[in-house]
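PT: before anyone asks, these are the final sequences, not the draft ones from last week. 358 residues across everything. Please model them as a single complex and drop the result in this thread when it's through.
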Amino acid sequence: MLELAILGFLRDRPLHGYDLRKRVAALMGHVRPVADGTLYPAIKRMAAAGWLTRKDEPGAVAAPRRMLYLTDEGRAELERRLRDPDDLDISDENRWFTLLAFLRQLDEPKEQAAVLRRRLAFLEEPTSFFYDGDRPMAAEEFGDPFRQGLLTIAHATSQAELAWLRATIDALVALDGSA
Amino acid sequence: MLELAILGFLRDRPLHGYDLRKRVAALMGHVRPVADGTLYPAIKRMAAAGWLTRKDEPGAVAAPRRMLYLTDEGRAELERRLRDPDDLDISDENRWFTLLAFLRQLDEPKEQAAVLRRRLAFLEEPTSFFYDGDRPMAAEEFGDPFRQGLLTIAHATSQAELAWLRATIDALVALDGSA
DNA sequence: TCAATATATATCGGATCCGAGGTATACTCG
DNA sequence: CGAGTATACCTCGGATCCGATATATATTGA
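LR: through. Structure below.
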């Protein structure tokens, strides 16, 4: 997921690692930024894969910066990941949020809509969080406020997402039809 | 986080690995269950740490089951993790949800409320997801429907959680006062 | 002026996780 | 009766991640 964020940010403009770190933290980390011990190895790894190149930037700032440029291979890899995301079928909000932040970078509205439809199909599957043996338990069955809270929050989240998904898919289809 | 789920489920009743796998999948995994290659090493690890004991169950079922029993050390470890969760300050919904599912296992309403208050404080911090240089960008600034969607969903989620948190903290405080 | 903080990059060990593969028995359906 | 599926446990290699640690300079505030 970190790799997708790096590819996405670099498609907008070249950045050095420290700047990238702040942007990734804002998107994925909030309080605790992504650890340096995670980010810099990831950059190195992705440079080895040929997705980005590094160039030293002799500048006015304290430490020497290494600017990161997305290569054509990196751009192709980004498009591949946006078009065919592996994990729309699991309930990992962070992954979905990161994807959502960069999905606009796909050129075709039709392909953007296709990704959203897969997510919609996933969210429309019935979900159960708790079981008594093999029998799924309904929210009303436990007075436990914490499990009630879990279901309340999960429900509100998926309702908000569903509403937005449906509206956005419609808009993308209309956009594609009129083009 | 997997370890917290295992401790929490075993506090309710002894389970064998395969049963645990289904419950963990229902809570954390939904479509894709936690991999066997993750769960069984985790069980082994936790047995080595003294948090649970394993006993072979010669039974009528196909393969021999190994029942898992939480030890006193395991119960103490669970309470420690519920009381002092490391990561209420990061935006990982899965962690928070797992914690929420077992927080009722803390005996004192006062301590339950204390955990919720820390989460409340985190959610009340202003958050920005996107930056133009160092300047945080408001939702209105980009017409981009994907970033708008990101903010819409994030906002709805945190509003639902805030409302539930405030109500539940009040209820716990009242409960503690009347006891 | 001196300490602290911010800038900036990097390595290393340890932890956890996933995917692929392996083993074996019971039940169900054609 | 045979194939497929469900039950049930496990190992191993590879990937990613975090925390600690290291280095070095510029800026800011007491």
